[in-house]
Specification:
The complex is a heterodimer of chains A (about 425) and B (about 550). Chain A has about 425 residues and is an all-alpha fold. Chain A is about 65% helix and about 5% strand. The relative contact order of chain A is 0.15. Classes of the chains: A mainly alpha (about 425), B alpha/beta (about 550).
Chain lengths: ~425, ~550
């Protein structure tokens, strides 16, 4: 963990913002280079913690993902080149009687395809870099408690992407040596059925493991006066209060059919729960109404906006209410370091520049090679600076983290720990 | 013992949803605090189900119908549910990969406690304790993906120990590990049991490694039959599963039944197999007829000085190996020593950076994979990556079509692989061993002359392993070359004629199984360790020698 989670989040915002709004290919190219630097550094750090010869499935997975991204780029370019026949600068002409591809093949078509593919690739690269550099579970800490479970599900789903890429490779090899050839849709099942079933089986195992470690419910001492057991044999203390609190009849649950998890006190009962459910429902209805209002041009238009804003607030309230029932503590406390400030500043400046450009000189970000526009891409200095600022994490990357020395790295990491202890204690006092 | 049992199961029956036949029927079992319990039984006999009733995953997670009474530490998991039980019972699963939520060791250890809202200071203390107990303190900052399988499994144990359960339940925790890693995990368990008095309930197939640590053993015969519970020595005599030593003890009447090589030494010393010496050379000669030097004909697979590297790390460094028809070769060595890489070269999935691989007269670099697979069949480590069809029979028919071969008599193949009657079953519903054989069937139906297997015994129970060994021997006898990468010393002892040991991408030893396995510390079978005699690798060898003596 080189930078603070919030720093990375800010970086993601800045990089994704630029990647999404910018269409100018030269600027996109620069963005790909800047993000690529960060990606390389992040992947090197991954390798550093590993013993030689150990497979680095995470890096491998994301690299496969990026190779897939390159294919998207190539396909997007070819597609546009062959099927878009507009433009003035004709490279060559395919016979007219060829279906779809027949007609003039233009430079504009090529450029637009290239630019479009580059933009797609840039977005994928930003996404991959963020995932590689930051453990998703650290982002989770910053989610409101009510969204924690949903967030964890998303993060697990994301962690399945590289795993599935790696497992796709295994399946493809296994089927290849069995004589499977990929010729069309008919040949998909041998590849995808093993892939999906393996992923499903894996997720079931994970779900069991989560369940067996007490995930997905409130801690048993909620409602028992929130007394934390004294240190040492914490469980003993806890179990005592627990048993005193509610004695279950030990009679057997005779042949009770339990097709779904219906364990006794899994969710906090009572008003809070009902209120949050009501608030969620209301806010969702509000959002729906607001969207329909805006989409259908009903007068007055501002009322739709108000509905949207109100329901958004209501949704936040719902999330807050939901979160009150959950009790979680955090083991790690992150430390904001000077380099975080610098990177955050760089990202903020980058975003500000892009936002300003978008408002004042949107043509600097817009690219459309077909007439009446010029086919030649432009380059705006300010956007270039904003793009370069995206590489800031790479510039301030601490030297020891990038080196291939696990011991050094763990020393650097463990330096953070003593500093975090006082904060731990403060948290304990709050409890 | 008058004290109340920590775990009480009374007449527990359970069946999964949408099935009629119960997995568990009238199970009665009492386990006392601090016991080390070994649970064994054929795959699919309900071991996992039994273990999961202890923390409420069955029936809360699985669904289904449960009857009878379960009491664990005074709590009823059927009523309390897995969440409540998580502080009493810790569960560790088979696949070390699939049970982690977050990606660094420390965070993973903290995850359970965070869910229970344990105070941060207490969390820190418990994590330090667990790191020391499991001797994984040096791994604390590491990413889980960078750990070895044995380390991963110890972290998985740690991640449930931080909740300070009093019972640790492990569902075949070593079935996916190589012997060294398995040893690490089992040693850890023994220490936890001895030092902390933790109750340990372990299901396991590699009996020879654990049976001596168990206080009691539970045998689940499956099919709703009654459990056999008792001291390992007693239970082992009654059940078909037995490590080689116990098989010898059964056959030769050694009492009390020895569980370790050390305990068996006095018995072995009494047997005077030296007298069998005059007859032995004959037997040895009989064996050498099959040995590589005498196998005639051109090599099916000829690996010539190949080099290969993954991302700059050398995986193979000048490996040469010839395999002829009728040979059964065991490829052994540590994890990461290049076994899988070598097998992949033989079927043309990988091409050497230097050197050549010639398979049935074709250089793998020039020949397309389609041509190679007509002669070479490769069964990957994970049968799941192969199986996709709705029935086992369709799997086989698919392979025939893919090889552009006419439809074959699938029944015959099913019969040879012991899959008769399973042809119409969904492959993924089969037990691990059956799945492995279904994958084998899917490859063998193309009738390749060379068969490559990568870790074929993963997760197989001892009986399934035996039948696999017999099957592979029969294949070799039909003139096929069989090369298997394996960690399983007993399997190699039982069927291989030749053993090749790889280390760091180089062939360290290549020779007849008897020679290699009797001169090695790590690769010696249990029987061989006991007698220290190159002629005696398996129980059969000893029994034959005895018969000769009489």
């Amino acid at each position: 963990m080189v930078y603070h989670t919030l720093t990375w989040l800010l970086w993601l915002c800045a990089a994704a913002y630029l990647a999404l709004v910018n269409g100018q290919p030269l600027q996109t190219l620069l963005l790909v280079l800047a993000t690529g630097t960060v990606f390389t550094l992040a992947s090197r750090r991954q390798h550093a913690g590993q013993s030689a010869g150990a497979e680095s499935r995470s890096v491998e997975g994301w690299s496969t993902f990026l190779r897939f991204g390159l294919w998207v780029w190539v396909v997007a370019t070819l597609f546009n080149l062959l099927f878009a026949h507009a433009g003035n600068i004709v490279l060559f002409v395919l016979p007219r009687n060829w279906p779809l591809v027949g007609g003039p093949i233009t430079l504009e078509g090529l450029l637009y395809g290239l630019a479009h593919g580059a933009s797609l690739f840039a977005v994928l690269l930003v996404f991959a870099t963020f995932n590689l550099a930051l453990d998703a579970n650290r982002v989770l800490r910053w989610l409101p408690a009510g969204l924690f479970q949903a967030g964890l599900v998303v993060s697990i789903a994301l962690s399945f992407v590289p795993q599935m890429m790696a497992s796709l490779k295994d399946v493809r090899e296994a089927q290849l040596v069995r004589g499977h050839k990929f010729r069309g849709l008919r040949d998909l099942p041998p590849l995808f059925v093993p892939l999906i079933t393996t992923a499903l089986e894996r997720s079931l195992t994970l779900a069991e493991s989560l369940e067996a470690r007490g995930f997905g419910g409130v801690s048993p001492w909620v409602g028992q006066g929130k007394t934390m057991p004294p240190s040492g044999r914490g469980i003993d203390g806890m179990m005592d209060t627990h048993q005193a609190g509610e004695q279950h009849p030990s009679a057997s649950a005779d042949a009770g059919t339990l097709s779904s998890p219906t364990g006794g006190r899994r969710y906090p009962p009572g008003r809070g729960h009902a209120a949050s459910t009501a608030a969620t429902l209301l806010s969702l209805i509000g959002l729906l109404v607001g969207l329909i209002w805006r989409a259908t041009d009903v007068q007055p238009p501002w009322l739709g906006g108000v509905a949207l804003a109100l329901s958004a607030v209501l949704l936040l309230v719902a999330v807050y209410l939901q979160g009150r029932g959950f009790r979680r503590t955090h083991y790690r406390v992150e430390v904001w370091q000077p380099r975080d400030t610098w990177v955050a500043l760089a990202c903020a400046v980058s975003m500000a520049i892009v936002a300003y450009t978008q408002a004042r000189n949107s043509l600097a970000l817009f690219y459309y090679p077909y007439p009446p526009f010029s086919p030649w891409p432009t380059f705006t200095l300010s956007v270039g600076v904003a793009t370069l600022l995206i590489a800031a994490p790479g510039l301030l990357w601490p030297a020891q983290a990038a080196r291939h020395m696990p011991e050094k790295e763990s020393m650097a990491d463990s330096q953070d720990d003593p500093r975090s202890i006082p904060q731990d204690e403060r948290e304990k006092d709050n409890l | 013992m008058t004290r109340v049992a920590q775990i009480q199961l009374q007449n527990v029956s359970f069946s999964y949803p949408n099935t009629d036949h119960p997995v568990l029927r009238d199970v009665c079992l009492e386990i006392h605090s601090g016991e080390f319990i070994l649970v064994v039984g054929p795959s699919g006999s309900g071991k996992s189900t039994l273990l999961r009733t202890l923390n409420g995953l069955v029936p809360h997670f699985s669904g289904g119908r449960i009857a009878g009474q379960v009491l664990v530490d005074g709590q009823n998991p059927v009523i309390e549910g897995p969440h409540c039980m998580s502080t009493i019972v810790g569960l560790v699963q088979q696949d070390p990969e699939a049970q982690f939520v977050v990606d660094t060791v420390e965070d993973e250890l903290a995850f359970g406690m965070e869910n229970q809202a344990v105070a941060p200071a207490l969390m820190r203390k418990r994590i330090e304790e667990v790191l020391d107990q499991l001797s994984i303190a040096h791994l604390r900052q590491r990413r889980i993906s960078s750990l070895s399988a044995g380390e991963k499994q110890r972290v998985a144990i740690g991640s449930v120990l931080t909740l300070q359960p009093r019972i640790l339940v492990l569902d075949e925790p070593t079935s996916q590990l190589d012997p060294q890693a398995a040893e690490e995990v089992l040693t850890t368990l023994r220490q936890l049991n001895a030092d902390l008095g933790l109750t340990i309930i372990l299901s396991e197939h590699r009996l020879e490694r654990v049976v001596q640590y168990a206080d009691r053993m539970v045998y689940l015969p499956g099919l709703g039959e009654n459990l056999v519970v008792g001291k390992p020595e007693e239970v082992l005599l009654q059940v078909p599963f037995a490590p080689p030593l116990v098989q010898l003890a059964k056959a030769l009447g050694w009492r009390p039944v020895p569980l370790t090589v050390k305990e068996a030494r006095p018995f072995a010393a009494q047997m005077d197999l030296r007298q069998a010496e005059p007859g032995a050379p004959q037997q040895a000669e009989g064996k050498t007829v099959e040995s590589p030097a005498h196998t005639t004909g051109p090599a099916h697979i000829d690996v010539q000085e190949i080099w290969y590297s993954y991302n700059g790390t050398d995986a193979l460094r000048g490996v040469s190996l010839q395999a002829k028809g009728g040979e059964l070769i065991a490829l052994m060595g540590r994890n990461g020593s290049g076994k899988t890489t070598l097998l992949k070269h033989m079927v043309g999935l990988l091409h050497p950076k230097r050197g050549h691989v010639v398979a049935h007269g074709q250089d793998t670099r020039d020949a397309p994979v389609e041509a190679l697979i007509q002669q070479v069949g490769y069964v990957p480590q994970d049968p799941n990556s192969l199986l996709f069809a709705d029935t086992v029979r369709q799997e086989m028919e698919f392979t025939r079509r893919a090889h552009a071969l006419p439809p074959a008599n699938t029944d015959e193949w099913l019969a040879t692989l012991g899959l008769t009657g399973l042809g119409e079953r969904y492959p993924r519903d089969l037990s691990v061993g059956e799945r492995q054989r279904a994958a084998l069937a899917a490859i063998l139906v193309a009738e390749p002359m060379t068969l490559l297997l990568d870790e074929p015994t993963r997760g197989l129970d001892p009986l399934e392993k035996e039948s696999l060994a017999r099957f592979l021997k029969a294949q070799a006898a039909q003139g096929r070359a069989v090369i298997m990468a394996t960690h399983d010393v007993e399997l190699a002892a039982a069927c291989a004629q030749r053993v090749v040991i790889l280390s760091e991408g180089q062939v360290v030893v290549d020779g007849p199984a008897r020679e290699v396995m009797s001169q090695s510390l790590t690769f010696a079978s249990q029987v061989n360790k006991l007698f220290g005699d190159p002629r005696l690798l398996t129980v059969q060898d000893v029994l034959k020698a005895c018969a000769h003596e009489n």
